[in-house]
Design goal:
Blueprint (H helix, E strand, L loop, with lengths): L18 E12 L2 E9 L9 E7 L6 E7 L5 E10 L15 E9 L5 E8 L7 E2 L6 E5 L2 E9 L4 E8 L4 E7 L6 E6 L8 E11 L7 E10 L8 E9 L4 E3 L20 E5 L10 E6 L14 E2 L6 E8 L2 E8 L7 E12 L2 E8 L3 E8 L5 E8 L5 E6 L4 E5 L15 E5 L6 E9 L2 E6 L4 E6 L8 E7 L3 E11 L5
Parallel strand pairs: 1-20
Antiparallel strand pairs: 1-2, 2-3, 3-4, 5-6, 6-7, 7-8, 7-9, 10-11, 11-12, 12-13, 14-15, 15-16, 16-17, 18-19, 19-21, 21-22, 23-34, 24-33, 25-30, 25-34, 26-27, 26-33, 27-28, 28-29, 30-31, 31-32
Length: 489
Amino acid sequence: MTGFQEPYRPQYHFSPRRNWMNDPNGLLYANGLYHLFYQYNPFGDQWGHMSWGHAVSRDLVHWEHKPVALWETEEGMVFSGSAVYDLENTSGLGTADTPPLVAIYTAHYKSTEKQAQHLAYSTDWGQSWQLYPGNPVLDIEARDFRDPKVFWYAPEAKWIMVVALAAERQVHFYASKNLREWTFLSAFGPAGAVEGVWECPDLFPLAVDGDPRILYWVLKVDLNPGGPVGGSGGQYFIGHFDGQRFIPEAPVGADRTHARWLDYGADFYAATTWFGTPQEDKHRLWVGWMNNWLYAQAVPTSPWRGQLSLPRQVSLRRIDGQLYLVQTPVPSLSTLRRQHWDIQNRPIPEGTSLLPVRGKTLELIAELAVGKAWRVGLKVRVGEHEETVIGYEVATQRVFVDRRHSGLVAFHPEFAARHEAQLPLRAGKLQLHVWVDWSSVEVFAGEGQVVFTELIFPDPESEGVAVFAEGGEAQLVSLKAWTLASAQG
């Protein structure tokens, strides 16, 4: 593939060849392929004419771009939704020998501004799609009724739809035996952060620490605005689902102090899980839109605008007695590793010390001992007047990412910022797993219970990596680093 060398073009994060993209949609695993659909404007690099773009992959790293799957119609735009592999042909839209892939999405009617849920289906493994003639399959005559996530609930042999009543800050649950006729079950919310509208819900079970005897359900919902650092962001609730309703493990008031954030950076939104992936009893796979509605239409990229986060494994872990949603990048990313550095037990004197590591695409696995320092960390994409800082403040027990001097920041007044989250150290040491691309930094701190996803727009010549300490000497216990090959070739 050629043409993926433009300034700020991600090399191992998914982006469309050109034009606007936002939410990932219809994530589905079938016949050995991971399908990725996404909100797409086929006609320009600003939001509009929403359709579903399409790409496929065998490893979640290398993507093959496909033609637009679902086009905007005269009736309305194709908003976000999900897709399933209807193996038993419960919908009747395929045959026993050719079960269909079924997309369930929100149609946004241009004439009335109302939203309802529609179906489309494919009997050739997603190469072509037909609109279901009986659309809509769920219509409550509402303006903000969107983003259906559908999954199979095996204990009662039925499909469940999780869908947002955005303006009411609620998630509604519906059930169906055939994907075409839906019955209301229950509602959840308002709860947690409610400053903005609720969007893009997801619901899935996870075994705690991989133990199938201890099962919880995770309800994830996004909001815009009102995210952890302003603009858009995502939160999650842990509880139980009995086939009818979601019950949080503990009461959750409609107050952001009760919010548990998916990501403490600015640029992780609309994450959704893949349907039908291998080992989904142990962990789920998801990906999010790497952007923020505050400035999404102003980011300085061309001829495309929008990209996705790393695909991540999502699991539940008990850490220091509390349940956390833990995220880790998919293991297949290791196939991109090239030049390698291994640094052990290096003192970090006060100030900034450049390391031999350099690159625009990097994976860094670091352990730092804070020692006598009151602030310590890494700097990436370091140039003459640029740096993105990943650090830790001992007194406040907070890990942070500072992109105020990361490169181009003036395109929007909210972009230049420092973001932070609480993270107690273990034995005075900080673990960081950092991924650097041409226009992003993703930081997985601790065991992955604290994550920062951040866009940055540095000069191409800014390739340095450094360690720093303030207030006293610290130690780089270990650093394993790799340059990463492009996944676009």
